[in-house]
Design goal:
With 217 residues, the chain is an alpha+beta fold. It is built from 5 helices and 8 strands, in the order βααβαββββββαα.
Protein backbone atom coordinates (compact mmCIF):
# COMPACT_ATOMS: atom_id res chain seq x y z
CA UNK A 1 0.00 0.00 0.00
CA UNK A 2 1.45 3.43 -0.90
CA UNK A 3 2.46 5.61 2.03
CA UNK A 4 1.07 9.12 1.81
CA UNK A 5 1.38 11.80 4.47
CA UNK A 6 1.66 15.56 4.80
CA UNK A 7 2.13 18.22 7.43
CA UNK A 8 -0.96 20.11 8.55
CA UNK A 9 1.00 22.65 10.64
CA UNK A 10 4.51 23.87 11.34
CA UNK A 11 6.41 23.63 14.64
CA UNK A 12 5.92 26.53 17.05
CA UNK A 13 9.67 27.24 17.27
CA UNK A 14 12.87 26.26 15.51
CA UNK A 15 15.55 24.16 17.24
CA UNK A 16 18.04 27.01 16.72
CA UNK A 17 17.10 30.57 17.69
CA UNK A 18 18.02 33.59 15.62
CA UNK A 19 20.16 34.84 18.51
CA UNK A 20 22.18 31.61 18.65
CA UNK A 21 22.60 31.52 14.88
CA UNK A 22 23.90 35.11 14.85
CA UNK A 23 26.35 34.28 17.62
CA UNK A 24 27.61 31.37 15.52
CA UNK A 25 27.91 33.62 12.46
CA UNK A 26 29.40 36.48 14.50
CA UNK A 27 26.78 38.84 13.11
CA UNK A 28 25.58 41.74 15.27
CA UNK A 29 23.46 43.73 12.82
CA UNK A 30 19.74 43.21 12.05
CA UNK A 31 19.77 43.64 8.29
CA UNK A 32 20.17 39.90 7.59
CA UNK A 33 17.74 38.64 10.27
CA UNK A 34 15.08 37.46 7.81
CA UNK A 35 17.73 35.81 5.63
CA UNK A 36 19.27 33.94 8.57
CA UNK A 37 15.81 32.91 9.80
CA UNK A 38 15.12 31.37 6.40
CA UNK A 39 18.41 29.48 6.51
CA UNK A 40 17.52 28.10 9.96
CA UNK A 41 14.21 26.76 8.64
CA UNK A 42 15.84 25.30 5.52
CA UNK A 43 18.51 23.57 7.63
CA UNK A 44 15.90 22.16 10.02
CA UNK A 45 13.87 20.83 7.08
CA UNK A 46 16.97 19.11 5.71
CA UNK A 47 17.66 17.53 9.11
CA UNK A 48 14.08 16.23 9.33
CA UNK A 49 14.25 14.72 5.84
CA UNK A 50 17.66 13.16 6.47
CA UNK A 51 16.73 11.70 9.86
CA UNK A 52 13.13 10.85 8.86
CA UNK A 53 11.93 12.60 12.02
CA UNK A 54 9.81 15.54 13.09
CA UNK A 55 12.04 17.45 15.53
CA UNK A 56 9.29 19.42 17.31
CA UNK A 57 5.55 18.74 17.44
CA UNK A 58 3.33 19.44 14.48
CA UNK A 59 0.02 18.04 13.19
CA UNK A 60 0.26 15.53 10.39
CA UNK A 61 -2.12 13.40 8.35
CA UNK A 62 -1.46 9.98 6.85
CA UNK A 63 -3.85 8.54 4.27
CA UNK A 64 -4.34 4.91 3.29
CA UNK A 65 -6.38 3.37 0.51
CA UNK A 66 -7.94 0.88 2.94
CA UNK A 67 -7.55 -0.50 6.45
CA UNK A 68 -4.99 -3.34 6.73
CA UNK A 69 -6.37 -6.86 6.81
CA UNK A 70 -4.63 -10.23 7.24
CA UNK A 71 -3.67 -11.94 4.00
CA UNK A 72 -5.03 -15.27 3.00
CA UNK A 73 -1.68 -16.99 2.47
CA UNK A 74 -0.59 -19.98 4.57
CA UNK A 75 0.97 -19.02 7.90
CA UNK A 76 4.44 -20.47 8.43
CA UNK A 77 5.32 -22.00 11.79
CA UNK A 78 3.36 -24.41 13.89
CA UNK A 79 2.87 -22.62 17.20
CA UNK A 80 -0.28 -20.80 18.23
CA UNK A 81 1.77 -17.79 19.35
CA UNK A 82 3.41 -17.51 15.94
CA UNK A 83 0.00 -17.41 14.30
CA UNK A 84 -1.33 -14.75 16.66
CA UNK A 85 1.78 -12.66 16.16
CA UNK A 86 1.36 -12.81 12.39
CA UNK A 87 -2.33 -12.00 12.65
CA UNK A 88 -1.98 -8.93 14.85
CA UNK A 89 1.02 -7.58 12.95
CA UNK A 90 -1.03 -7.74 9.77
CA UNK A 91 -3.62 -5.42 11.36
CA UNK A 92 -1.20 -2.74 12.53
CA UNK A 93 -0.96 0.76 11.10
CA UNK A 94 2.50 2.33 11.42
CA UNK A 95 2.89 6.09 11.56
CA UNK A 96 5.71 7.97 9.79
CA UNK A 97 7.94 10.75 11.16
CA UNK A 98 8.55 9.43 14.69
CA UNK A 99 8.07 9.92 17.44
CA UNK A 100 4.29 10.26 17.78
CA UNK A 101 2.98 12.41 20.62
CA UNK A 102 -0.69 11.55 20.07
CA UNK A 103 -3.16 10.02 17.64
CA UNK A 104 -5.81 12.69 17.24
CA UNK A 105 -8.38 11.04 14.94
CA UNK A 106 -8.91 8.02 12.70
CA UNK A 107 -11.56 8.46 10.02
CA UNK A 108 -12.64 6.73 6.82
CA UNK A 109 -15.14 6.91 3.98
CA UNK A 110 -17.82 4.31 4.68
CA UNK A 111 -19.94 2.30 2.27
CA UNK A 112 -22.47 5.15 2.38
CA UNK A 113 -19.71 7.41 0.92
CA UNK A 114 -19.79 9.56 4.06
CA UNK A 115 -16.88 10.28 6.37
CA UNK A 116 -16.94 8.45 9.70
CA UNK A 117 -14.67 9.09 12.70
CA UNK A 118 -13.75 6.00 14.70
CA UNK A 119 -14.50 6.00 18.40
CA UNK A 120 -11.08 6.03 20.14
CA UNK A 121 -12.28 3.15 22.33
CA UNK A 122 -12.28 0.89 19.26
CA UNK A 123 -8.51 1.08 18.69
CA UNK A 124 -5.35 1.13 20.79
CA UNK A 125 -2.13 3.03 20.18
CA UNK A 126 1.47 2.23 20.99
CA UNK A 127 3.20 5.61 21.26
CA UNK A 128 6.36 4.25 22.85
CA UNK A 129 7.55 2.30 19.84
CA UNK A 130 9.19 3.92 16.84
CA UNK A 131 7.29 3.98 14.64
CA UNK A 132 4.10 4.36 16.66
CA UNK A 133 1.49 1.71 15.95
CA UNK A 134 -2.31 1.54 15.92
CA UNK A 135 -4.28 -1.70 16.36
CA UNK A 136 -7.97 -2.56 16.71
CA UNK A 137 -8.91 -2.76 20.40
CA UNK A 138 -9.72 -6.20 21.86
CA UNK A 139 -13.12 -7.27 20.58
CA UNK A 140 -13.01 -4.89 17.59
CA UNK A 141 -11.64 -4.96 14.07
CA UNK A 142 -11.14 -2.38 11.35
CA UNK A 143 -14.25 -1.37 9.37
CA UNK A 144 -14.81 -3.36 6.21
CA UNK A 145 -14.98 -1.13 3.14
CA UNK A 146 -16.67 -2.32 -0.04
CA UNK A 147 -15.89 0.84 -1.99
CA UNK A 148 -12.32 1.39 -3.22
CA UNK A 149 -11.57 5.09 -2.86
CA UNK A 150 -7.89 6.08 -2.89
CA UNK A 151 -6.91 7.81 0.33
CA UNK A 152 -10.20 6.99 2.04
CA UNK A 153 -8.60 6.22 5.44
CA UNK A 154 -7.17 9.22 7.31
CA UNK A 155 -5.07 9.23 10.46
CA UNK A 156 -4.48 12.63 12.05
CA UNK A 157 -1.65 12.62 14.56
CA UNK A 158 0.88 14.84 16.29
CA UNK A 159 4.48 13.99 15.42
CA UNK A 160 7.49 15.25 17.35
CA UNK A 161 10.49 13.40 18.73
CA UNK A 162 11.87 16.03 21.09
CA UNK A 163 8.76 17.80 22.44
CA UNK A 164 7.01 20.97 21.35
CA UNK A 165 10.11 23.13 21.71
CA UNK A 166 8.42 25.42 24.24
CA UNK A 167 7.23 23.48 27.28
CA UNK A 168 9.46 20.53 26.45
CA UNK A 169 12.68 20.77 24.47
CA UNK A 170 14.82 17.61 24.34
CA UNK A 171 16.51 18.41 21.04
CA UNK A 172 20.03 16.87 21.08
CA UNK A 173 23.01 19.20 20.81
CA UNK A 174 24.19 17.16 17.83
CA UNK A 175 21.15 18.37 15.85
CA UNK A 176 21.64 21.97 17.01
CA UNK A 177 25.31 21.94 15.96
CA UNK A 178 24.45 20.34 12.60
CA UNK A 179 21.90 23.09 11.92
CA UNK A 180 24.41 25.78 12.90
CA UNK A 181 27.01 24.30 10.53
CA UNK A 182 24.50 24.32 7.67
CA UNK A 183 23.35 27.86 8.44
CA UNK A 184 26.97 29.00 8.41
CA UNK A 185 27.53 27.31 5.06
CA UNK A 186 24.39 28.81 3.53
CA UNK A 187 25.23 32.26 4.86
CA UNK A 188 28.82 32.11 3.58
CA UNK A 189 27.96 30.76 0.12
CA UNK A 190 24.80 32.56 -0.96
CA UNK A 191 25.17 31.63 -4.62
CA UNK A 192 25.03 27.90 -5.31
CA UNK A 193 28.04 27.55 -7.58
CA UNK A 194 31.22 25.49 -7.61
CA UNK A 195 32.18 22.89 -5.05
CA UNK A 196 31.20 25.03 -2.05
CA UNK A 197 27.55 24.02 -2.32
CA UNK A 198 28.05 20.51 -3.69
CA UNK A 199 27.65 19.06 -0.19
CA UNK A 200 26.84 20.31 3.29
CA UNK A 201 29.77 20.94 5.67
CA UNK A 202 31.94 18.06 6.78
CA UNK A 203 30.59 16.50 9.94
CA UNK A 204 26.87 17.23 9.47
CA UNK A 205 25.87 13.69 8.55
CA UNK A 206 28.10 12.25 11.28
CA UNK A 207 26.37 14.47 13.84
CA UNK A 208 22.96 13.30 12.63
CA UNK A 209 23.81 9.60 12.30
CA UNK A 210 22.74 8.74 15.84
CA UNK A 211 19.32 10.35 15.38
CA UNK A 212 18.50 8.89 11.97
CA UNK A 213 15.42 6.68 11.72
CA UNK A 214 15.80 4.36 8.76
CA UNK A 215 12.26 3.32 7.82
CA UNK A 216 8.83 2.49 9.20
CA UNK A 217 8.92 -0.85 7.35
Amino acid sequence: MPLSYRELSQPAVEPVSLTLAKQHLRVDFPEDDSLITGYITAARQYVEKYTNRAIFNRQMRMTLDFFPWPGWETVTGSSHDAYLGWYFRSLEIRLPKPATASVDAVSYIGNDLQEHVLDPSTYVTDLISEPARIFPAPGFTWPYQQQYIPGQVRIDFTAGTYGDGVERNDCPHSIIVAILLMVGNLYEYRVASGEAMSEFPLGVKSLLAGEKFESIY
